[in-house]
Amino acid sequence: MTTIAPPVVRTKEPSRSTGGRSGPVLWMALPAFVWFVFFGIIPLLGVLALSFTTWNGIGEIVPSGLDSWKATLSDPGLPHALWVTFLIMALSWAVQTPMSILIGVFLATSKRYREFLAVLFFIPLLLSSAAIAITYKALLDPSFGLGSGLGIDLLNQDWLGNSTLAMATLIFIVSWQFIPFHSLIYQGAVRQIPTSMYEASQIDGAGRVRQFISITLPQLKYTIITSSTLMVVGSLTFFDLIYVLTAGGPGDATRALALAMYQQGFQANLMGPASAIAVILVLVGLVLSLVLRRLGGRADDSQLEGA
Amino acid sequence: MATVTKHRPSPSVSGTPGGTRRRNKAMAYNWLGGGLSWVWLFVVMLPIYWIVITSFKTQSNYFITNPLVPASDLTFENYKTVIESDIVRYFFNSVIVTLGATVPAVLVSFMAAYAIVRGSGSRILKGMNWVFLMGLAIPLQAVIIPVYLIIIRLKMYDTLAAIILPSIAFAIPLSVLVLSNFIRDVPKELFESMRMDGATEWGTLWRLAFPLTRPALVTVAIYNGLGIWNGFLLPLVLTQSPDQRTVPLALASLSGQFGVNVPAIAASVTLTTLPIVILYAIGRRQLLSGLTAGFSK
């Protein structure tokens, strides 16, 4: 779950100081702060520094100016990895968002479904990406999987061996893994919409579809932004799933940015260029979350309050 | 899980002459959402059902029986194979890493959250809070190379501590955010009366804030614990010997080792997921609110 770091989440404005006696409490914040600086902030600066060096991961770190950046930016693998990342991001968003909203609305209104079946519905949230990837790899295997076992030709494709199919399969598995989570967020948000709004529109004779379009969707605006940010920024960091499922293949069809960085750094032992890719990863994430926050248009308020 | 039902009009509406018609219209079953939810439930359950029934089939049976029909003669042979593959050791590694990272992460985050709320007049604490908020935007993947370098320099490569230390750090930002939002809801008068009674900040932290924030602490612990339990990148990069593997990494390597022995792979996935599913069955509500920690308080 480290993949879902939501930059749009902001705290409420700190309430009025209770006297500003920071002296006795300051040290209480120090352990967390020092720890986070050491393993979070310093590495962030470190990755930028390492992108100007040559290092094989074991030996000495040698400053080498712009060499790593030149190598990375001239590598045709980079635009391809960016394209793959974008594709995964856009497609998984487009599949998950409408489905999560519809299911979330249903979950919020159907008590029966929620109480009995939600137990099963949320199981994907508990599983590790590794376990999910292994399960699907076995399930979709063209020789030993479900398709061949049932003898249905339509199901018996080389799901992970064909570039287009592998991408579609990946999007499907991502949706399988995360739609329950996003439905859960939407469910919570729908239940916070005041009932009186629906009552008023009923008196005006509005039907279910009309209510959905003119009440539910506008009321969910901030939740849609929160959920979309989690999806979009989260998809930048899909690593475990792709690593175990396809290892970027077939060829480089599913080689997204995070995997490209790992392979460059820990398999090809080119830590300099890998750090350059990591810097690009951070920048893309920052730009995306800033854009999504602008779309929200409520810069000073907590997105959480819309959720 | 409150039971507010949305699209139902209030009784007074249905009492009016035209009300019955309107209510019927409003109460009409949500076919689209309902249908989709049931279909998706089926989609969600199919691989889970398949992996569980397959884990009880013999390897020879697996190839000749219908993959969606459970074996008539259940075998525990696959589970034996998995247990003999040292899975118990990997399981305990995961327990050590998860507890060793979650407990300190929640404690230091709780202290920091308390300080940030109570010392909100301090510029230094405001600055620290800002750093934590920015930290939410740092993906672990992006900084894994320097983290690897730090772990090597600390001479901790290939130990469980190598996984634990960065896991704590990356649990801190969201934990501080969620916990400080909760502590902020504690009425000021309570802090004031603690102070009148001569309690120190340290005493107030443990005797007032801790009990009042307990639900949030549980939530944050579950959220982080599950993420660390399922973590893959840190063990992959920071350890190499089989002895130090955690469950997700062990699963990946076992699936390569078992090759075409699909029932054994199925048993390894089922066995390692079972404890989490049991915990889920016990504390479903806490777990679900833990999973959405901070997104729908």
Query: How much beta of chain B, percentage-wise?
Result: under 5%
Helix-strand string of chain B: HHHHHHHHHHHHHHH
CATH architectural type of the largest domain in chain B? Orthogonal Bundle
Oligomer: heterodimer
| Rg over CA atoms of chain A | 23 Å
- Biggest chain contact: A-B, 129 and 132 residues
Write down the domain tally of chain B.
2
| CATH structural architecture of chain A | Orthogonal Bundle
Give me the strand/helix succession of chain A.
HEEHHHHHHHHHHHH
- What structural class do the secondary elements of chain B suggest? mainly alpha
Q: How many domain regions of chain A?
A: 1
Overall pLDDT of chain B: 84
Subcellular location (chain B): Cell membrane
Protein name (chain B): Carbohydrate ABC transporter permease
Organism (chain B): Paractinoplanes bogorensis
Main location (chain B): membrane
Secondary structure elements and pairings:
The complex is a heterodimer of chains A (307) and B (297).
Chain A (H helix, E strand, L loop, with lengths): L22 H28 L2 E2 L7 E2 L3 H8 L2 H33 L1 H11 L7 H11 L6 H5 L12 H28 L4 H9 L4 H12 L1 H16 L3 H6 L11 H11 L3 H26 L11
Antiparallel strand pairs in A: 1-2
Chain B lengths: L10 H5 L3 H9 L3 H24 L4 H6 L12 H8 L2 H32 L4 H13 L8 H10 L6 H25 L3 H9 L4 H29 L3 H6 L8 H12 L3 H21 L1 H8 L6
